From TrEMBL:
Name of this chain's protein: NitT/TauT family transport system substrate-binding protein
Lineage: Bacteria, Bacillati, Bacillota, Bacilli, Bacillales
Sequence similarity: Belongs to the bacterial solute-binding protein SsuA/TauA family.
Signal peptide segment: 1-22
Organism whose genome encodes this protein: Neobacillus bataviensis
Key words of the record: Signal
Pfam (any one): NMT1
Record-level GO cellular component terms: periplasmic space
Domain SsuA/THI5-like stretches: 50-259
Subcellular location as annotated: Periplasm
InterPro entries on file: SsuA/THI5 (IPR015168)
Gene3D superfamilies membership: Periplasmic binding protein-like II
PANTHER family referenced in this protein's UniProt entry, alphabetically: ALIPHATIC SULFONATES-BINDING PROTEIN-RELATED (PTHR30024), TAURINE-BINDING PERIPLASMIC PROTEIN (PTHR30024:SF47)
PROSITE patterns documented for this protein: PROKAR_LIPOPROTEIN
Length: 338
């Protein structure tokens, strides 16, 4: 009798465990099925976008039920084309591109919903070491700038004019080199000064190919330099998804803000397999110290107006666009409240 009771109890226990395991497996499958795919097209691969890589590496997107894939589409024009044609759901690119699309009369405008960086991310690199740099040293020299019409180029010209330099008269300005080839062109001997993103600028410095002498980010002030944006129709049809996405970005922004530069570098190192961890730490520290990483996803009106002033100064503003027309901060505000 006792043996039968023990056997019955054992069978009951096994049944309970099997049911529990089946339930856990079912829950796991349900969670996997619930992951919603979101495709991001980023304008370039740069440590400048560290919070985005932190959100991916730390699983913040998955915590929100999102399966995010990331593709690099070099250049603002290519990134925006990818978004508009349906090749991506969300783009990480300069806010000026949304103005260009709107000015062309789009029926489905591209809306900025979460800001990632709030300063320019480029640095002025000189071919030769300069102990006492001043902007006047660029006069009469050849400056290898960024693509015409893009934020780096416009900020570059804005800063030059701020220091009394006419970029089209006081120096030789090269703007016809494709974005992806600018660093190689400088390394090959083109120009005495170049405007570069990180980590390329620091890598060049370590290799003796150039020397960082100034920061365009420090000189230009706060602008919505790179933001996450999507077509108005996508946001309307997928508002919950966009809110979850924004919440993950906000978590990452806070994580970057509260962790050391070395911790941030280690967290995102898989996205920069060919970059030395010491250089990455230096780059993150440089961006953190000048306040390049936005600490929250809110794109405010003052930044939007500063952007348009820079575009106007560069002669690249097709038309002034009201802040509320192309900026939607509802999701950002909601996730910050919660």
């Amino acid at each position: 009798m006792k043996k039968w009771v023990k056997m019955s109890f054992s069978l009951l226990l096994i049944s309970v465990l099997m049911i529990s395991l089946a339930a856990c497996n079912s829950d796991s499958q349900t969670k996997t099925k619930k992951l919603e795919k979101v495709r991001i097209a980023e304008v370039t691969r740069s440590i400048f976008y560290a919070p985005q890589y932190v959100a991916l590496a730390k699983g913040f997107f998955k915590d929100e039920g999102l399966d995010v894939t990331l593709t690099t589409t070099p250049g603002g024009d290519k990134t925006m084309t990818t978004l508009i044609s349906g090749g991506a759901d969300i783009a990480l690119v300069g806010s000026e591109t949304s103005i260009y699309v709107y000015a062309q009369g789009s029926n489905d405008p591209v809306i900025n919903f979460a800001q990632l960086t709030q300063t320019d991310g480029t640095f002025l690199v000189a071919r030769n070491k300069i102990d006492n740099f001043s902007w006047d040293l660029l006069k009469g020299k050849t400056f290898l700038g960024q693509r015409k019409g893009g934020m780096p180029q416009m900020v570059g010209e804005f800063v030059l004019k701020k220091h009394g330099i006419d970029p089209h008269k006081d120096l030789t300005l090269i703007q016809n080199v494709d974005y992806a080839n600018i660093a190689n062109a400088f390394a090959s001997g083109t120009g005495e000064f170049v405007q570069l993103f990180e980590p390329t600028a620091s890598i060049f410095e370590k290799q003796g190919k150039g020397y960082i002498v100034a920061s365009f980010g420090k000189e230009s002030g706060h602008v919505p330099y790179t933001t996450f944006m999507a077509k108005q129709s996508y946001i309307k049809e997928n508002s919950d998804t966009v809110e979850k996405f924004t919440r993950a970005i906000y978590k990452a922004q806070q994580w970057v803000q509260t962790h050391s530069s070395e911790e941030v570098a280690k967290a995102v190192m898989t996205y920069f397999p060919d970059t030395d961890i010491d250089i990455m730490t230096t780059v993150v520290d440089r961006y953190k110290s000048q306040g390049s990483f936005a600490t929250d996803p809110i794109l405010d009106e003052e930044e939007w107006n500063n952007l348009q002033n820079i575009m106007k100064e560069a002669g690249e503003l097709p038309k002034e666009v009201d802040y509320k027309t192309l900026v939607n901060t509802k999701m950002a505000q909601d996730v910050m409240k919660k």
